Amino acid sequence: MLFFRSEEQVRLWCAERGDPIRPLVRIDQLWRLATAWYSTRLQESSRRPQPQEMRQIFAELGLEGDFWDPLSDRFG
Amino acid sequence: MEFDAVVKLTIYRHFAETGEGPKVEEVAQRVGAAATSVIESYRRLRALRVLVLEDDGTSIRMAPPFSGVPTQHVVEADGVRYFANCAWDALGVPAALHRKAVVRSRCEQSCEPLHLDVALDGPTRSDWLFHCLVPASHWWDDIVFT
Fold first, then answer.
1. Backbone angles phi, psi at B11, to 5 degrees
2. Cβ-count burial of B115 within 10 angstroms (0-12 exposed, 13-18 middle, 19+ buried)?
3. Which of A12, A25, A46 is opposite residue B130, by nearest beta carbon?
4. ipTM value of the model?
5. Which of A56, B3, B78, B82 is 20 to 30 A from B103, comparing alpha carbons?
6. What is the DSSP letter of A66?
7. Could you tell me which residues are beta bridge partners of residue B80?
8. Is some CB atom of chain A closer than 8 A to the CB atom of B122?
9. pTM
């Protein structure tokens, strides 16, 4: 899970490694993921989002498809 | 509060206060339990995916979003320096702390430095991008690689 300056830099990085390019996430979307996961982490009631909650969080951000599905079996 | 929850909060609050992970002995002292009981709790917290341990079973590698080891993702808030496990966790640190922060990292391809000011309601506008190679269904197969 890495930062990149631009989509072109992601493409170069993936090409050099022979890896597929994955869906790109904007910084404002990443902030919303960070708050969904961690905003209660220092509180007594904190817990990680469960798979169905993860699906909902991703969907609300427009992050859909098998790549973002924690229960997908498409990737083995 | 259950023992494991007490141990978890003790670890996370130590990270929040100091930027570093606590030693088992420090956790044991704070919670008033034997180190062996704390280590057993660590194993259960690992199963819940709120803690990642080094091979020795006692050193904390990750208490997401905090990293127990130095990384390229550095967060500064109120004069404390934190290391984050990844780009996601770099924003996760100010989200967890509920404090203003500065995130410093880099473009993984060009090594161009990233400097991101994060206010209480989120980071300043930025056209940088986040990319994750591993599908969500496999993140915890090897969370250090992810």
1. -65, -50
2. exposed
3. A25
4. 0.91
5. A56
6. G
7. B77
8. yes
9. 0.91
